[in-house]
Amino acid sequence: MKTLVIGGNGFIGTNLTDALLAAGHQVSVFDRYPSRYKEPNASVNYLVGDIGNHGAIEEAVNGIDWVFHLAYTSLPQTSNDDPVYDVRSNVADTVQLLQCCRNSKVKKIIFISSGGTVYGIPQKLPIAEDHPTEPICSYGISKLAIEKYLHLFHKLWGLEYVVARISNPYGEQQNPYAQQGAIGVFLGNIVQGKPITIWGDGSVVRDYVYVQDTVKALVMAAEFQPKEKDHRIFNIGSGIGLSLNQIIDEIKLAVDMPVNVQYMPARPVDVPANVLDISRANNELQWHTEVSLNKGVKRTWKWVKTIHQKNHAQAASI
Ligand SMILES: NC(=O)c1ccc[n+]([C@@H]2O[C@H](COP(=O)([O-])OP(=O)(O)OC[C@H]3O[C@@H](n4cnc5c(N)ncnc54)[C@H](O)[C@@H]3O)[C@@H](O)[C@H]2O)c1
């Protein structure tokens, strides 16, 4: 298939690009920045641009079969600071993208939504796709709004789509020096000899899924050929809830450096627990996770150390 990965130079996007190439697909990447850590792949057609540039998006989707939409301008923690920007840059520009996909007769759009925020505070665990959606951050609301537009475009104009509500992915290519992505950030702090900061008492429970399992789900979601009545929204996680304190214990087993933890006051956007029910993706996409947390954290740690050593070597040579 001819595929376009919008936001393909980010954490999930670079892993997805590799998975698509490995599955024999043609890949174009549309992103406003190059990849932070990965050298360009000679087999990929890279397009530089912003999703807000409608002409560029129109050209990019022309002749494409599958569009993966991963670009996002907001984060759960900070989206409430500027909800207008969130709506303009994510909802409005995505609806414009859907128009272009419709005009270009794209076969399917795969949208990366958020299993961690669209449901809000869970009424029961694990959370299935039909759980009420009451997000407590603008990011969750904008993701949900885009899901609704996908449904609308499908009903009105037959644009096919799948939504992947991803939990907490971790793994190679996740920026270890950033603010979000607990496992990546914790490993980034450890490799720099800094303490790990935990917001709250460490009892917050999340569902961590290894990135290569995640992108496998995205490829399977694209291959999935739903009939009219079939589901198009899937939770993608491990289905296992672990507290931050349990994650720290797991990390201590995986790394070969000291692990120091400092506890800070809890943040209001953090729901106390989030664990996804992944049985729909298991049964209907035939997707299953393959990499255990222990193995995934070890692989990620190896990658974080390599990146850190490379950064050090570069800084020393300047
Ligand atoms: N990482 C997570 O914890 C997580 C969890 C659930 C859902 N998601 C969603 O998955 C998607 C990918 O996340 P990620 O962690 O790989 O993020 P990322 O920030 O690593 O990658 C996003 C990429 O999109 C590009 N981008 C952003 N805005 C753009 C724009 N306006 N025009 C063109 N390119 C733009 C960025 O340059 C970046 O390369 C996002 O939609 C995110 O909301 C992420």
What report would you give on this structure?
This protein has 318 residues and is of the alpha/beta class. It is built from 9 helices and 13 strands. A 7-stranded parallel β-sheet has the order 3-2-1-4-5-6-11, sandwiched between helices. Helix 4 (138-157) links the parallel strand 5 and strand 6 (161-166). Helix 5 (182-191) packs across helix 7 (244-254). The chain is globular, with a radius of gyration of 19 Å. The N and C termini lie far apart (43 Å). The model has no long low-confidence stretch (mean pLDDT 96). Nicotinamide-adenine-dinucleotide is lined by residues 7, 9-13, 31-33, 50-52, 70-73, 112, 114, 166, 168-169, 181.
Itemize the secondary structure elements and their pairings.
Elements: E1 2-6, H1 11-22, E2 26-31, E3 44-48, H2 54-61, E4 66-69, H3 83-103, E5 108-114, H4 138-157, E6 161-166, E7 168-170, H5 182-191, E8 196-199, E9 205-206, E10 208-210, H6 211-223, E11 233-236, E12 242-243, H7 244-254, E13 261-264, H8 279-285, H9 293-317
Parallel strand pairs: 1-2, 1-4, 2-3, 4-5, 5-6, 6-11, 7-10, 8-13
Antiparallel strand pairs: 9-12
The protein binds nicotinamide-adenine-dinucleotide (NAD).
Residues 7, 9-13, 31-33, 50-52, 70-73, 112, 114, 166, 168-169, 181 line the site of nicotinamide-adenine-dinucleotide.
